[in-house]
Amino acid sequence: ETGVTQSPTHLIKTRGQQVTLRCSSQSGHNTVSWYQQALGQGPQFIFQYYREEENGRGNFPPRFSGLQFPNYSSELNVNALELDDSALYLCASSLAKGGGTEAFFGQGTRLTVV
Amino acid sequence: GQSLEQPSEVTAVEGAIVQINCTYQTSGFYGLSWYQQHDGGAPTFLSYNALDGLEETGRFSSFLSRSDSYGYLLLQELQMKDSASYFCAVRDQGAGSYQLTFGKGTKLSVIP
């Protein structure tokens, strides 16, 4: 088991609402990446934070935003939720930008939008 | 853009050997990783190849050919617990940062 923890584990929201997901990275890791994983698909890169600044972004709209805190924990915020946002949201921490040679994933937050 | 191709499903017998192939198309390629994910679980790192050749870690081996944009994961002495989804992922540089781009995954079923 990795040292990456995510909360909550499950969440149900209504279309149009906003949601905040949280991630505590593995001790000593200064880079956090967020991924969205739809059922039966591979994780898709949302964005990455390195030392509290966004360090790259995938093909996701601006209503997906994030933060990284001085202790390297991170939040993912999604505004104006849509049904297609239903997915497993994974946080991964690493020692270097882009995951280095190994990224450590949390168990994820299962978001259901109804 | 980046794309990865891997088989969607593979079935193999306990104790056998199975190879999961991955072909990729990407710019700024830095390496190929493999991750295992059990149903309901987190992806866990298996291996990383930055250079051509074979990397061996216990029962698992991974191979990379940069000239062919091709790699594979080899699982030997299959065990029932190896039933999971396996993802290849390229480490590349996109949108100003290094990032992992994953394939859609190969669901491996190990049967007795």
Describe this structure in words.
Chain A has strands spanning 5-7, 10-13, 19-24, 31-37, 44-50, 53-57, 64-68, 74-78, 87-94, 104-105, 109-113. Chain A has 114 residues and is an all-beta fold. In chain A, strands 2, 4, 5, 6, 9, 10 and 11 form a 7-stranded mixed sheet that branches. In chain A, strand 5 (44-50) and strand 6 (53-57) form a beta hairpin. Chain A starts with a strand and ends with a strand. The relative contact order of chain A is 0.33. Chain B has no helices and 11 strands. The N and C termini of chain B lie far apart (41 Å). The mean pLDDT of chain B is 92. Chain A binds chain B through residues 2, 4, 33, 35, 40-45, 48, 50, 55-58, 90, 92, 96-99, 101-108, and chain B through 4, 30-31, 33, 35, 41-45, 48, 50, 87, 89, 91, 93-105.
What's the layout of helices and strands?
The complex is a heterodimer of chains A (114) and B (112).
Chain A: E1 5-7, E2 10-13, E3 19-24, E4 31-37, E5 44-50, E6 53-57, E7 64-68, E8 74-78, E9 87-94, E10 104-105, E11 109-113
Parallel strand pairs in A: 2-11
Antiparallel strand pairs in A: 1-3, 3-8, 4-5, 4-9, 5-6, 7-8, 9-10, 9-11
Chain B: E1 3-5, E2 9-13, E3 18-25, E4 31-37, E5 44-49, E6 53-57, E7 60-65, E8 70-75, E9 84-94, E10 97-102, E11 106-111
Parallel strand pairs in B: 2-11
Antiparallel strand pairs in B: 1-3, 3-8, 4-5, 4-9, 6-7, 7-8, 9-10, 9-11
Keywords:
heterodimer; A: 114 residues; seven-stranded mixed beta sheet; globular; B: 112 residues; mainly beta; 0% helix
Summarize the entry for a quick read.
The complex is a heterodimer of chains A (114) and B (112). Chain A has 114 residues and is mainly β.
Average pLDDT of chain A: 91
Question: Strand count, sense and closure of the main sheet of chain A?
Answer: 7 strands, mixed
> Helical residue percent of chain A?
under 10%
Shape of chain A: globular
What general form of chain B does the structure show?
Answer: globular
Alpha-carbon distance between the termini of chain B? 41 Å
> How many beta-strand segments of chain B?
11
What helical percentage do the residues of chain B reach?
under 10%
- The radius of gyration of chain B is 14 Å
Chains forming the largest contact: A-B, 30 and 28 residues
What does the radius of gyration of chain A come to? 13 Å
Q: Structural class of the secondary elements of chain B? A: mainly beta
Element order of chain B: H for helix, E for strand: EEEEEEEEEEE
Oligomer: heterodimer
The main β sheet of chain B shows up as:
6 strands, mixed
Proportion of strand residues of chain B:
over 45%
How are helices and strands ordered from N to C of chain A?
EEEEEEEEEEE
Number of strands of chain A: 11
The total of helices of chain B stands at 0
Poorly predicted parts of chain A: none
Question: What is the SS-derived class of chain A?
Answer: mainly beta
